[in-house]
Write a structure and sequence with these properties.
Elements lengths: L4 H10 L43 E4 L10 H7 L6 E4 L2 E4 L2 E3 L7 E4 L7 E5 L15 H4 L3 E3 L5 E3 L2 E4 L17 E3 L4 E4 L2 E3 L5 E3 L9 E5 L2 E4 L1 E6 L2 E5 L2 E4 L11 E6 L9 E4 L2 E4 L6 E4 L13 E5 L2 E2 L22 E5 L19 H4 L4 H5 L10
Parallel strand pairs: 1-2, 2-5, 3-6, 4-7, 5-8, 6-9, 7-10, 8-11, 9-12, 10-13, 11-14, 12-15, 13-16, 14-17, 15-18, 16-19, 17-20, 18-21, 19-22, 20-23, 21-24, 23-25
Amino acid sequence: MHRSALSRRGFLLTTAGAGAALGLAAGPAVAGTRPRPHPHRRPFGRYGSPAARRTPRTLYVDPHGRGDFTSVQAAVTAAEGPGWTLVLAPGTYRETVSVDADRTGATWIGAAEDPRDTVIVYDNAAGTPKPDGSGTYGTSGSATTTVRADGFTARRITFANDWLRADNPDFTGTQAVAIKVQGDRSAFHHCRFLGHQDTLYADTRDLGLFARQYYADCYVEGDVDFVFGRATAVYERCHFRTLLRTDLSGAPHGFVFAPSTAGANPRGYLVTRGRISSEAPDGYYKLARPWVPSSDTTARPMLTVRETHLGAGIDAVQPYANMRDAYPWQEQRFREYRNTGPGAAVTVPENRPRLTRAEAASHTREAYLGDWRPYDRHR
């Protein structure tokens, strides 16, 4: 399964697998075979148009010029203040996008029913030199999309970073973020997040902010720590897929989760009713490792995975690993509950910390999200 760099980039933009709820295939599609929407037919579908605007605070984005703007960032810049909706026509938006903290309550809608049709993608990595010569981007700066504002919602959009190790064998900064989300009450419905290392950065604006995030019926793929950060985040009915690494000859290829939950935060990452699949050999991936960053050595990473199918790609014997030996995973807040699949087999009990039934009652989306109920509005 040794794909070329070109086919891998195509794969990032055409992978099926947004989740069982969307009725999409689980495996990779062949690049270039997916039919694209006809360019002259209602680019904004049922969401209106510039001539029939849904609301005065709705803007339309279309790379072919039939909307208010041809780029997402141009629309974000124009949408000053709270409460704007951006409707994105099908297409590939090759750009970086940043949503400042003052643009609260924003909603982005992919006009196509299939999130594969609306893609925001770029290819910066942590080690990519900045054009002005001031250094490299770093992990946060590599993000294709950065959302700092509270109350952000996205539906049926693909967020991707298609930077490839194969194109840059001399790079040491191989983190390449598809999206960094920092705001409270951030919700993603039927979205895809594509990358390799550090794909989905579910974080907060500052250490004292316990930002809540909700991901429903989403698809996330990557290899090293590809869901990471310190947010309080619920992943419901999501599909996580681990990738084959042709640059490595043996296990492990990577880690699915790397939470960095603040020690004072009682809620970290909750994965519920999802699944984890793999294109790598059996047992080549760890479920998680704790990230205790140098900027917060009091962090106590927290991850609960419950009622989720763990495929054979997860190492069932040793599903967790240390990122730094000074912060062993056994001292963090990692728990499992009623998972299924070969990757969930309990062969060494001390390596599979489990919740009791009574403890599991407090590890629910309601407990994690409190008075915010994004799951009620989008069944």
